[in-house]
Amino acid sequence: MFKIIILISCMFTINTCSKNTPSEAPTLRVAFPLFKSINEYDPSRITYIPEYMLLKNIYSTLVELDLKGNLISGIAQKYYWKNDELHFDIHPNLKTVDGMAITGEDVETSLKRLMILSTNPHGNLKTLLCPNLILKSLNDPCPGIIATKDKVILKPQKKFVFLLPMLASVDFSIIPKSSLDMTTLKIIDYRNTSGVYYLEKDIDSKNLQMNLAVNKNHYHYSAKIPHKIILVPSGRSAPKNAIELFRENLVDCITTADIISTDHLIDLASQNTEAQIHQTLDMEISFLNFTQKGIKQITEKNRFILAKKIRALFHELTTHYKSYRPVNQYFLSFGEGAISGEQEQEFIHKLESASDDLSINQNIKGDYLLVTDLRQKLESKLNEINKNVKTSSASAYPDPNTHYNDRPDFHIAGVDSGFQEDIGLVSFIINNDRFGLGKEKGKKWLDEYVQIENKQERIEKLRELHYSALIKGFFFPLMSSSFAAIIRKGWSFDFSKTQVSLPLWKIQKEN
């Protein structure tokens, strides 16, 4: 998932930034970089970490992951396999803020909606539950889902062991039926949600900050968690960045989703006695990725030469960064899907042996999505590599319907590389064509991947694809870093080092 770098134009008022008095319920002020109306947030189409984070806090899933990555109960108070069927007993006391019960019918509606829209990049549920059917409306039957008020049964073709962890992804959030337009499938009510928080106030022309409030009917509710969350703009076009907001006591939290680099947050924590820092493992990877257009237009030889030059530039620009480290593969070296030491050395040798003579006669286009300070340093440097290499800042990945000639030949971006095998993450890699398969081959590869029951065989298939993408010059790792967050003293927090998105209910007000 990308650490977003999206242009945001917004203002905010500071009259809500006073400290809590002991008699007030805890209010947490959070710097938030992706500022748009709540109507633009939908679990069915998540691209950026801030989207994932906000939706994670207002919607819940059937199952969840604890801090160690283990599955735990969510909306399903109890879950179990019965032969090849996956059974979920729905939490009997979960209600929205207005007292509407979350039921098995809501689960069925949410899952079928996701299959109809087919826009989520983190896993294809339809392939597992309704493989040969075309769903066009919620009334169309899917024999792989059976639901009653208090129970849901999923009936895949066989026992897919990764189905449960896949359902912990925010893509598979449960949305109350009453909060949906049953014809267009759009979310029309963000007050009645299934999550710990709900929308109290959206942004508008007069109010350019978003307020969330706690749902006391939720199973994660506690008197100590933030009862109100104020999202304060911190994007590139906001009046102040996240660090300025924190130093001026206008926010209490800078999340892992912000555009501020980890190095700047480390410096803030060392210089400001009010700042506590949380860091993940080195899970953010900056990379160079050639598109299908780029693979066709640029020879393998020139892809390696261009990558060698860009990697050298990255290493030069990040020499003094505390958190950036050279990296030679997509996944953590000890993570699942990592290539072997021998494969890594083969890739390094091929890259270092590449010529310095970049012979490109046609114009090639690249865009980059990176944290602010590194982005600014790259801006003037990338265009010096070759007169025919044109690079530009990008606010998002281009629409797939963009005319072929207008599409970029390569991307430079940062992404969460993950830690354990995760079908959602693997789907994201394939659907965003990280490893050069293209749409049709990618779909075929993913369909084959999900059919493999043995985990080690799946990991080997992923490793082979990973190695192939590197050695053929489709994908080039540049640098790795940790994600970081800052929380003001007076609040305690309990976050995972292997999960990027922050559950804000894991922050508690100290006495």
- Spans of at least 5 consecutive residues whose pLDDT stays below 50 are 1-23
- N-C termini distance: 35 Å
Number of strands: 21
How much of the sequence lies in strands comes to 15-25%
Morphology call: globular
Task: Report the radius of gyration as a whole number of Å.
Answer: 23 Å
Reported by name, the CATH topology of the largest domain is Dipeptide-binding Protein, domain 3
Number of helices: 13
Mean pLDDT level: 87
Structure description:
The protein has 511 residues and is α+β, with helices and mostly antiparallel strands. It has 3 domains: 27-58 and 195-280 and 486-509, Periplasmic binding protein-like II (D-Maltodextrin-Binding Protein, domain 2); 63-179, Dipeptide-binding Protein, domain 1; 284-481, Dipeptide-binding Protein, domain 3, CATH 3.10.105. The protein has helices spanning 49-58, 104-117, 125-129, 163-166, 242-247, 262-271, 292-297, 300-317, 341-352, 372-382, 423-431, 439-451, 455-471, and strands at 27-32, 63-65, 71-73, 76-82, 85-90, 145-147, 151-154, 197-201, 210-214, 228-233, 253-254, 275-279, 284-290, 325-326, 364-369, 389-393, 410-416, 475-481, 484-488, 491-493, 507-509. The strands form 5 sheets. A 7-stranded mixed sheet has the order 8-9-10-1-11-19-12, sandwiched between helices. α8 crosses α10 and α11 (423-431) runs antiparallel to α12. It is globular and about 65 Å long. Mean pLDDT is 87; it is low at 1-23.
